[in-house]
Backbone:
């Protein structure tokens, strides 16, 4: 449990630092690269929570697919590769105040509600077929089959919608 | 401890909220939304680990799938806005401003 805590705080510090860099850097491309660090850190946190299948999915989908899509978006909208001074609104301090107040309220609520509640010593889910991944797969294709199908239809609709929106000949 | 994961999620969420509110570039706003969705996923998996339940992991996977769909459609919209206005500055997108 001690080693887990050490790695948690190490990763959390890197993640929070990179996340702050994402929203404060003046360079869009650099923000995207910092975001990759945050996503990789989130994936490592999933491993600490014994959810290795979600961790691998996180790397594949977020670091692999979504970030490539983001970089394409940056490239196609021709953001300057150098410094981009006009990246923040003039009233950014309102956003900062909102975020700080939100963090204070949520932090108070969480500490008030959960305090020092421990996680179970063994955070693996109840296993039916030998591994966590098998358990997740079993649940996905039995108990959660209908939501799973709905999500696949949603992905198809998003795919068609994105093509229809972005194509030129209209 | 449960709370360390929940507090990490809260901090990432708030950084994402700041990004959404304070950034002028539409692509940066989309990136901040991804930050928010990741914070939510950490919470889902932390509660899943607390309950020893697989539901947390399943819903995290659903959130990842919906986030992928959201980025695809969002970037398509940003591309169309850029094509029509030669800018992704959100201050320029004021067609529906009263």
Residues:
């Amino acid at each position: 449990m001690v080693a887990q805590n050490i790695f948690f705080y190490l990763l959390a510090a890197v993640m929070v630092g990179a996340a702050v860099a994402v929203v404060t850097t003046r360079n869009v491309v650099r923000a995207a690269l910092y975001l990759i660090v945050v996503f990789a850190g989130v994936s490592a946190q999933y491993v600490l929570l014994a959810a290795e299948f979600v961790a691998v999915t996180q790397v594949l989908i977020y670091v692999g697919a979504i970030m490539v899509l983001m970089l394409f978006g940056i490239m196609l909208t021709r953001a300057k590769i150098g410094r981009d001074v006009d990246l923040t609104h003039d009233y950014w301090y309102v956003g900062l105040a909102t975020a700080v107040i939100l963090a204070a309220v949520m932090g108070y609520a969480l500490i008030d509600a959960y305090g020092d509640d421990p996680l179970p010593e063994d955070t693996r889910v109840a296993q039916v077929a030998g591994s966590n991944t098998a358990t997740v797969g079993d649940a996905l294709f039995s108990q959660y089959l209908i939501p799973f199908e709905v999500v696949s239809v949603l992905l198809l609709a998003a795919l068609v919608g994105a093509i229809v929106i972005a194509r030129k000949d209209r | 401890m449960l709370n360390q994961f929940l507090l990490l999620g809260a901090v990432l969420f708030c950084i994402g909220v700041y990004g959404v509110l304070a950034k002028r570039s539409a692509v940066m706003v989309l990136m901040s939304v991804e930050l928010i969705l990741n914070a939510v996923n950490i919470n889902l998996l932390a509660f899943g680990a607390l309950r020893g339940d697989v539901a947390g992991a399943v819903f995290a996977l659903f959130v990842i799938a919906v986030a992928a769909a959201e980025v695809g459609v969002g970037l398509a919209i940003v591309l169309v806005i850029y094509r029509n206005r030669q800018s992704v500055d959100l201050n320029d997108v004021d067609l529906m401003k009263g």
User: Anything to note?
Assistant: Chain A touches chain B through 89 residues (CB under 8 Å). Residues 52-76 of chain A form the longest helix (25 residues). DSSP finds six helices and no strands in chain A.
